[in-house]
Amino acid sequence: MSTGYTDKEAIAGIDAPLPEIECWPNQFKGYEIEIEIPEFTSVCPKTGLPDFGTVTIRYQPDQLCLELKALKTYLLAYRNLGIFYENVINRILKDVVAACNPVWAEVSGQFTPRGGISSRVKARYNQSSKE
Amino acid sequence: MSTGYTDKEAIAGIDAPLPEIECWPNQFKGYEIEIEIPEFTSVCPKTGLPDFGTVTIRYQPDQLCLELKALKTYLLAYRNLGIFYENVINRILKDVVAACNPVWAEVSGQFTPRGGISSRVKARYNQSSKE
Amino acid sequence: MSTGYTDKEAIAGIDAPLPEIECWPNQFKGYEIEIEIPEFTSVCPKTGLPDFGTVTIRYQPDQLCLELKALKTYLLAYRNLGIFYENVINRILKDVVAACNPVWAEVSGQFTPRGGISSRVKARYNQSSKE
Amino acid sequence: MSTGYTDKEAIAGIDAPLPEIECWPNQFKGYEIEIEIPEFTSVCPKTGLPDFGTVTIRYQPDQLCLELKALKTYLLAYRNLGIFYENVINRILKDVVAACNPVWAEVSGQFTPRGGISSRVKARYNQSSKE
Amino acid sequence: MSTGYTDKEAIAGIDAPLPEIECWPNQFKGYEIEIEIPEFTSVCPKTGLPDFGTVTIRYQPDQLCLELKALKTYLLAYRNLGIFYENVINRILKDVVAACNPVWAEVSGQFTPRGGISSRVKARYNQSSKE
Amino acid sequence: MSTGYTDKEAIAGIDAPLPEIECWPNQFKGYEIEIEIPEFTSVCPKTGLPDFGTVTIRYQPDQLCLELKALKTYLLAYRNLGIFYENVINRILKDVVAACNPVWAEVSGQFTPRGGISSRVKARYNQSSKE
Amino acid sequence: MSTGYTDKEAIAGIDAPLPEIECWPNQFKGYEIEIEIPEFTSVCPKTGLPDFGTVTIRYQPDQLCLELKALKTYLLAYRNLGIFYENVINRILKDVVAACNPVWAEVSGQFTPRGGISSRVKARYNQSSKE
Amino acid sequence: MSTGYTDKEAIAGIDAPLPEIECWPNQFKGYEIEIEIPEFTSVCPKTGLPDFGTVTIRYQPDQLCLELKALKTYLLAYRNLGIFYENVINRILKDVVAACNPVWAEVSGQFTPRGGISSRVKARYNQSSKE
Amino acid sequence: MSTGYTDKEAIAGIDAPLPEIECWPNQFKGYEIEIEIPEFTSVCPKTGLPDFGTVTIRYQPDQLCLELKALKTYLLAYRNLGIFYENVINRILKDVVAACNPVWAEVSGQFTPRGGISSRVKARYNQSSKE
Amino acid sequence: MSTGYTDKEAIAGIDAPLPEIECWPNQFKGYEIEIEIPEFTSVCPKTGLPDFGTVTIRYQPDQLCLELKALKTYLLAYRNLGIFYENVINRILKDVVAACNPVWAEVSGQFTPRGGISSRVKARYNQSSKE
User: Fold this and answer.
1) CB–CB contacts below 8 A, F to G
2) Which of A2, H67, H101, I126 is the most exposed place for a label (fewest CB within 10 A)?
3) Mapping DSSP to helix (H, G, I), strand (E, B) and coil, where does residue B31 land?
């Protein structure tokens, strides 16, 4: 396999330190929350150019709900971070799950076109399929 | 867990007295009603600023149908009430179920952006899964 | 239960005489027809004010198809009839089923806002679940 | 049953001769094709007035694919043919199936309003449920 | 069967040499990627006229992700290639699967109207149903 | 000229008594008001069938503003009145001008299709060109 | 100039006999009427294939208004008439002016794509600039 | 003139004290700013029910620009103020002009339907026509 | 001035030979024609990558009308031609004017995004301002 | 005047060094170019939070055209620059005019909502009114 991405680029930003996602105690059971962030931006680790997109987080809270102000600060930290689209979405999912341990969660991103090509990435987590 | 919301804010408005949701005797069986209120507004208990959104109530009536004029009065009472989005939707569901005991009911809210982030909350009730 | 509707209002129009829904002999099996009437109007039995909405009829014909010209005359007869939304949809379903005995039928109505609140009502019939 | 349509009108156009639907040898397995014809027009056998609509054909090819140029000629032949909506859709399905013997096929038509009423008709065929 | 397409036209472009689709090592499990190319163009092998359409590739990566820059070069190579719509979509699917061996993949194309007729073609692959 | 309308039909409804359009004292100078009524309905004097449309009233108030509740009652009175589209719009303009004597006024109506044909009618008045 | 159209094609349909456009006596002064016909169809004199489009007629009536039912019959007569787009619009304008002698009139047509190219044609008449 | 509004209602809210609109020193000449507030709400002085609408402020700054945070606080103060639509727009214009003395300014409001009727109000100021 | 384009690139394609634009004799006076080509594509002379866009031609014919089939052939010839956006539009205008000598003509192009930037170019010719 | 902005904030970013806007020699006269950048982002000098918007540049070139690749680099430099909306648009206009000395130019920005309020700023330059 000849690839246009180096290994270093492929893992760029995956473990970079980011602000904490905070939570507040959930008061009800069995419902769903969807959060849309239409102004997400990060940096392509290969070209150094900015990427833009809409990130959507959906989850069913268990004991905790995501606090929106801290979530915003967390997402703003991607602004100057070099990381691929695909890794952005998977990392946000991992961090959301770690913060609020939801019944389930789903993160997706719709990224604006580059070279006439646009991308959507979607990842999902289920508490019950965790070991 | 460090949280940006105090416990008092997290439960604000959950038990505040609100006008009664009235009903009228249903005449048919096995159908579904959807009610959309695009002008819902309440107050954020943290910042004191107004929140805006569209609330949608769907349900299958059993013996009673929701009376729309009284429902409107009930919803207007949120106008100066401090309560979080997530709690608004869960409380409306609880109050609708208590008023008309439907076969099932679902309440959702699509709230307008704050800080570039918009939210949707959806909660559901089933008569048959009630003990 | 205190209700804003009298019993008389709750059943208004349910048994009013209306023009006959006519049919013609169906020539094929196992297909579906959807009819949309965006200019439906009736009268609120409580306020005397007109209601407006879009009524949609979907069904799988058995031996008979609904004749559209007669159906239009039938629906025009609601123009000065006092009857609630919820009852409009259930009555149309009952009359359609009586006229053409379909394999299944579904009637829904999307009514325009009153007091900032819009409604959708949907009712369904299955030949096989009829005794 | 008193009906506004004569028997002759009810079957008009069902067996009229039409141009052949041609095919070409399919090269792949297990995929789906959708063809949309937004400029379909035929004639109402009762009033003699033209009907207009969008016809959509979806199918999974088996050994043969529909040839689009011949299909267009076939559909143009409805231009001066007296035939009801419901029969148009069922006849196209029958002719498509006879021409290319697909794994499955579905034909639907969305017809423009007449007297404030618009119609959609949808019919479906499955190779496996054929005897 | 009389057909408007010759055998040569029916297989045109199916085996033409095209640039390699490159990949990079996937870092996460169990998520989905969708890539949209609204500027796809190829040539009709019968008329020599260009076809235009939007091609969409969806897949769940296994060990490898599609590299977008190489994918773009691969798709640009269809610009002067004579090949039918139906074959375009099936070939792209075959080449994508060969390049990155995904858990599943789906390729679809929405082609702009010719003679008042537009087409959509959709093909799908599942790793688990491969022998 | 052979015409499909009788003289009586051509003037139907032009002088029928209607509820009064009321006003309230305007507090400011030199601004513009636009009122949209998407649920207008009247009756065709020829066929007896209902017409539907959206009526829009724009005007610059002088001493008086139109009172919306009375305006609604006025417009509801067209519901069972036989009158042509063209005359509806001109009569509303005449009645609005008589009621509030505006600096200028414009009334337009967008009527839903009949026989595949939709209509828009627009009439205008200027205080300064009145003698 | 080498041209793809013969002289006979260029004037096809310009003088073909068509049904009369009828009128009724106008009751008001100084207003405007717009009529939209989204289901216009005629035939290309070169290829014999049908053309489709939306025709819009705007005019300020003088003594006479266009009668819509007769106008519809007039427009239906183009269904099997061979005539170019450009000539369709100019002929309709000429016939409308001859029928009702308006203060001004404008006819436009938006025709659906052929070979990836769509056309709009617009012609205008003013009573005052007529000699 | 019999009117449904009392004089007291007609002037309600026109002189109520509101928070100050603040400004900052403009740095450029000859350009235009448009500010849209889609979440405006006030109270009807007659019914006590809330009104909702979108308010738009356009102006050409002279020495001062409107400060958005203070403007928001100013507009939030209408939330529990009884005042008619028409007066809302004219008062905002008057207050904006007093605060920043622009070259010109225009304020408009699009208010959501009440009783099936929606309203738009637009007022305009020019520095040069001020004496 | 340091520029990213060479002189050779700046004039690329301006004088390349292209197929003739043919015409047919116009039959009417004083009207306007608009032709939209949503599938235009050419090649960037700098990068060699394809550009895509919608080209619109508007003109008032004098003695001649553009023949659409030849116009299509002319436009297809840009498919493999290296030429900048800005020059494409100006050259089409020049060639259209040379072919049919219109009273006036306007050509515009809306090109799809490259690097997150989209472009529109519009050029205009008037017969009367020609010397 | 009490203002929420300090003088330092009011002029922030107005004179910050930015990459050069490059040009290429224009080949035609009297036409117009519009460039849309939907992914513009800068930083609020007061809060330090990012602003997002769509910037549109329209101009009539004289001797020079804007080179798009360099323009993109210039605009990317606002990403971490603290500067108000109003100043962004005026500065881009000033820099564009300095770079290519156009016959006229217009720059506008549509910025996404903050606190429920969105802004549009538009500035314009004319060569002929320059001294």
Assistant:
1) 77
2) A2
3) strand
Q: pLDDT under 70 in chain B at which residues?
A: 1-4, 130-131
| DSSP SS3 for A81 | coil
Helices (H), chain G: 7-11, 68-76, 85-100
Task: Write down the catalytic residue from A7, A23, A44, A95.
Answer: A44
Residue C92: partners with Cβ closer than 8 Å, 6 or more residues away: C55, C57, C75, C107
H72 touching F (Cβ < 8 Å): no
Looking at the complex, does the CB of residue D30 fall below 8 Å from at least one CB of chain F? no
Which CA distances in Å does G1 have to I12, I19, I97, I126? Answer: 28, 14, 14, 22
**Domain residues of chain E, as ranges?**
22-126
Position J83: which residue type? Answer: I
Which among B79, B80, B112 has CB closest to H39? B112
Which of helix, strand or coil describes residue B54?
strand
User: Inter-chain contact G50–D38, Cβ cutoff 8 Å?
Assistant: no
Contacts of F16 (CB under 8 A, 6+ apart): F81, F83
> Which residues in chain H have Cβ-Cβ distances shorter than 8 Å to B38?
112
CA geometry: angle C31, C33, C37, nearest 5 deg: 175
Q: Do chains F and E touch (3 or more CB pairs under 8 A)?
A: no
- Residue I53 CA from chain centroid, whole number: 11
Scanning the structure block, which residue is given the tokens 């450009």? G86
How distant, in Å, are the alpha carbons of B50, C34, D76 from that of D12? 63, 21, 17
Task: Please report, as a single letter, which amino acid is at residue C102.
Answer: P
What pLDDT does residue F9 have? 87
ipTM value, please give it.
Answer: 0.91
| Residue C98 amino acid letter | A
For chain B, say whether C92 makes contact (Cβ under 8 Å).
no
Of I9, I90, I120, the CB nearest to J28: I90
Residue D117 in contact with residue C37, Cβ under 8 Å? yes
Question: What pLDDT sits at residue I130?
Answer: 59
Task: Give the tens place of pLDDT for each residue, G27-62.
Answer: 999 999 999 999 999 999 999 999 999 999 999 999
**E131 has a pLDDT exceeding 50:** no
Residue J61 half-sphere exposure, CB side, CA atoms within 13 Å?
A: 24
Q: Among this protein's residues, is J44 annotated catalytic?
A: yes
Residue B27: its pLDDT value, please?
94
Q: Would the CB atoms of B39 and H50 count as touching at under 8 Å?
A: yes
Q: Above 50 in pLDDT, residue E1? A: no
Closest CA of chain E from G129, distance in Å = 40
DSSP code for H82: B
Ranges of chain D whose pLDDT falls below 50:
1-2, 131
The letter for the amino acid at F53 is: G
Chain B residues in contact with A72 (beta carbon < 8 A)? 115-117
Candidates C126, C94, C88; CA nearest to C108 is C88
- CB E79, CB E39: distance < 8 Å: no
**Check whether domain G22-126 has CATH 3.30.1130.10, yes or no:** yes
Q: Please give the full DSSP string across I31-90, using - where no structure is assigned.
A: EEEEEEEEEEEEE-TTT--EEEEEEEEEEE-SSEEE-HHHHHHHHHTTTT-B--HHHHHH
Catalytic residue at A7?
Answer: no
